[in-house]
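Teaching soon. Invent one.


***
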Amino acid sequence: MPQRKSAKEELKKSLKRKQQNTIRKRALKEAIKAYKQALAADDLKTSQSALRTLYAALDKASARHIIHRRKADRKKSRFAALLVKKAPKTATKKKSS
C-alpha cells in the first residue's frame, strides 16, 4: 500500500480509471458481437445500423486511448469490408451501346 498522501490519491485515481476502461472495453466488445450477429442473420438494415454503432464505439475507445487510433481505423475498415462482402450485388453494370 502507498504511504504518501499523493501516492494514495494516485492509487484511487488509477483504480477508478481501470474500472472505466473495463466498462469501455466491454461496450466495444458488445458492439462487435452485435455486429457479427447481425451479419450472421443476413439482415442488411440491421447490419448497417450495428456497423454505425460499432463505428461510434471504436471512435470513443480510440479517443479515450483504450485502443490505438490506427487499430480503430483498421477494425472499421475490416468490418466495413465484411458488410460489403455479405451485401447482395445491387450495383448495376453499365450497358454498352
